[in-house]
Write a structure and sequence with these properties.
The protein is α/β, with parallel strands linked by helices. Helices cover about 40% and strands about 15% of the residues. It is globular, with a radius of gyration of 18 Å.
């Protein structure tokens, strides 16, 4: 059994649909351009809204997971009133090809998709935004100091597995003792396919994943396109749940890359994020001139649940670093 974090968010949205409907004041735009971009291993789906040749540099968003999809960034399409916004699904995710070949599931190959997107959309300059695992991709890409990178944003980031687990373990310790015991015992024994473990992880997610409902249009878009997390990819690279890694990323350490980032950098996390500000701050300090914004009352799913606050931070960061 696999607890789909996206299904958790969708369930939250459905349970609070009247509230979400009242709060929705913006209509999701249809993509103005869609591409299937060739990458190593197959083709990935990408959509764009806004003027790709406008005066402000376009922005690409890298989703989390590994194994999720672009739906969590739908609220950020509101930024297309100022610049082109490009959302995409990584290989084996969402609307992209699903070869499901573990040989493709390495960090470097996912990072290489960024240059493929730049070539496909002809982007001499761009801003790059990652969230969660997507921030790992953004970190790795920015550390290469590619030409034309106007800025980078690392949202609720997986910088290293050791720092991530330090944060999630601290969060877990704040939950009821029976929840802690169930999660720790289940993960230690490998019994993560039980109802007890799923229920306990549901408590963890309710505290640190989504602290508010996602908008109706996010839920409806995901249902319309039959989008769901790829559990095989997620388990292979990360594990069975957010707290501890057992997959190929269990030894990942991107902290040495932080001082190599030359582009202006914005870190973002939620007040109740899986990646806490306390753990994040020492890493922010290792990036020259980097800023950290903490969104009040938000959890890890803040791009969807707190889209307005997230967009306000991002809009200011992008404007400040357009260097038109």
């Amino acid at each position: 059994m696999y607890l789909d974090r996206r299904a958790f968010l969708v369930g939250l949205a459905a349970s609070a649909a009247p509230l979400a409907a009242r709060a929705q004041t913006w209509t999701l735009p249809s993509p103005e351009r869609e591409l299937r971009v060739p990458v190593r291993g197959g083709h990935i789906y990408a959509r764009a809204n806004g003027d790709l040749k406008g005066p402000r540099a376009p922005v690409i968003f890298a989703h989390g997971g590994p194994g999720s999809h672009h739906t969590s960034f739908l609220p950020q399409l509101a930024l297309a009133d100022e610049r082109a916004v490009i959302l995409y699904d990584q290989l084996d995710c969402g609307l992209s090809d699903h070869p499901n070949d573990p040989a493709n599931w390495i960090v470097e190959r996912f990072v290489s998709e960024v240059d493929a997107l730049r070539a496909a959309f002809d982007l001499p300059r761009l801003h790059f935004v990652g969230h969660s695992w997507g921030s790992t991709i953004a970190l790795e890409y920015a550390a290469r100091q590619p030409s034309g990178l106007a800025s980078v944003t690392l949202g609720s980031p997986l910088i290293s597995t050791k720092s991530w687990q330090r944060s999630t373990s601290a969060n877990l310790a704040k939950l009821p003792p029976d929840v802690i015991r169930t999660i720790r015992a289940s993960e230690a024994s490998g019994a993560t396919d039980t109802a007890a473990y799923q229920q306990a992880m549901g408590v963890f997610y309710s505290h640190y994943m989504a602290r508010a409902p996602v908008p109706d249009y996010v839920r409806d878009y995901g249902a319309e396109h039959k989008l769901a997390t790829n559990p095989v990819l997620y388990k292979a690279m990360w594990g069975t749940g957010e707290i501890a890694a057992t997959g190929s990323l269990r030894t990942y350490d991107g902290e040495p890359l932080l001082p190599r980032i030359a582009a202006p950098t914005q870190f973002i996390c939620g007040q109740f994020d899986e990646m806490t500000a306390d753990v994040l701050k020492p890493m922010v300090a290792r990036v020259r001139g980097a800023r950290l914004a903490v969104i009040p009352a938000a959890g890890h799913a803040l791009t969807a649940t707190h889209g307005d606050a997230y967009n306000a931070i991002l809009r200011e960061h992008l404007r400040r670093n357009d260097r038109v």
